[in-house]
Amino acid sequence: MPLQVEGGFGFIITTGKENCLFASSFSSTRHLKGKMAYPVPSQAPFNKPPIPFTGAIHGGLQPGTMITVTGMVPVSSDRFQVDFQCGSSKHPRADVAFHFNPRFDFFGGYIVCNTLQNQIWGVEERKQEMPFSNGGTFQIMFLAQNDSFMVAVNGQHLLSYKHKIPLSRVDTIGINGQVQVESISFQNSFASPVPASGWPSAPLYSANSFQPAMLPSGPLYPANAAFLSAPLTQSFTVPYATSIPGGLYPGKMIMIYGRIPPNPTRFQINLKYPSGIAFHLSPRSDENAVVRNSFINQTWGKEERSLLGNQMPLSSNQAFTICILCESHGFKTSVNGQYLFDFQHRWQQLQQIDQLEIKDNVTLTSVQV
């Protein structure tokens, strides 16, 4: 049986200026003297919360909300859990929309996912893959989407879990078990603006000693932390190009953040290999379409334009989060937490796809590769 979450509401920090680990709250992006500032969180973080812990999610969850949990698994740990709950009641216990439960055993361990409704657990879903290790640090990113939660650990997609309870009911996060949590941070694509005074600097932990280490100016990760394959880049002039260290592979996720201009036409995102474009993504406001294609052997392939619901996901002056997930069969793409389409691989040598290019009529805020 899953562990029971205990403990009252956690404290909320209401002052200060946080350097975002994972930028996504674009509606509150600020500009500082010729520099692009990173988006601020939709809610102040919980830093070093006592475990067991229960804390409120301000405004509840909505598609596009990202919650990042950083911490360390003690050497003696056999399990811990993160629960997205509908309230904080203990008797009777509040419904749990998403129970994420890593369990360690002699064979390495596995992940249990489940839902608790009316005091009854549903059928467990198990992932026979363990990205956590005893004594190791971690970063878990939970992205709420219209139909599911997406989970990435240390920068790599791990699993998706379909909603069994409406996302709108989720307003609480609970953490329990044998785990040490450094921070719980919140980003929301639809967050309201934050006062210009901002948030106080938040400590990150050092990958070696798990001691607080203050960030330098700009949101960089500790040099030897393996959270992401590359830090968030500091320059976002369009046209923009960056390398993808090691190329693509199933589970690799690319996040692009920006804003559509007031009078948009079109822009493009290209995932490139040395002599071509494996995946060309072109949102076109002037055609009310999102075009997908590839450029192989100096020839454009057949365009794909169909969309779920035939609705253009981007509009003028809108902030956006585009998530491109590389899978074994193709690229899965979502915008602001809403799934849009799959694009089947036309270039199979994924490791050769090692360049990201973004250009034309778009304001770029942040990129994670």
UniProtKB/TrEMBL annotation:
<dbReference type="Pfam" id="PF00337">
    <property type="entry name" value="Gal-bind_lectin"/>
</dbReference>
<dbReference type="GO" id="GO:0005634">
    <property type="term" value="C:nucleus"/>
</dbReference>
<dbReference type="InterPro" id="IPR013320">
    <property type="entry name" value="ConA-like_dom_sf"/>
</dbReference>
<keyword id="KW-0677">Repeat</keyword>
<feature type="domain" description="Galectin">
    <location>
        <begin position="240"/>
        <end position="369"/>
    </location>
</feature>
<dbReference type="GO" id="GO:0032689">
    <property type="term" value="P:negative regulation of type II interferon production"/>
</dbReference>
<keyword id="KW-0430">Lectin</keyword>
<dbReference type="GO" id="GO:0005829">
    <property type="term" value="C:cytosol"/>
</dbReference>
<feature type="domain" description="Galectin">
    <location>
        <begin position="53"/>
        <end position="187"/>
    </location>
</feature>
<dbReference type="InterPro" id="IPR044156">
    <property type="entry name" value="Galectin-like"/>
</dbReference>
<dbReference type="GO" id="GO:0030246">
    <property type="term" value="F:carbohydrate binding"/>
</dbReference>
<dbReference type="GO" id="GO:0016936">
    <property type="term" value="F:galactoside binding"/>
</dbReference>
<dbReference type="GO" id="GO:0010628">
    <property type="term" value="P:positive regulation of gene expression"/>
</dbReference>
<dbReference type="GO" id="GO:2000562">
    <property type="term" value="P:negative regulation of CD4-positive, alpha-beta T cell proliferation"/>
</dbReference>
<protein>
    <recommendedName>
        <fullName>Galectin</fullName>
    </recommendedName>
</protein>
<dbReference type="InterPro" id="IPR001079">
    <property type="entry name" value="Galectin_CRD"/>
</dbReference>
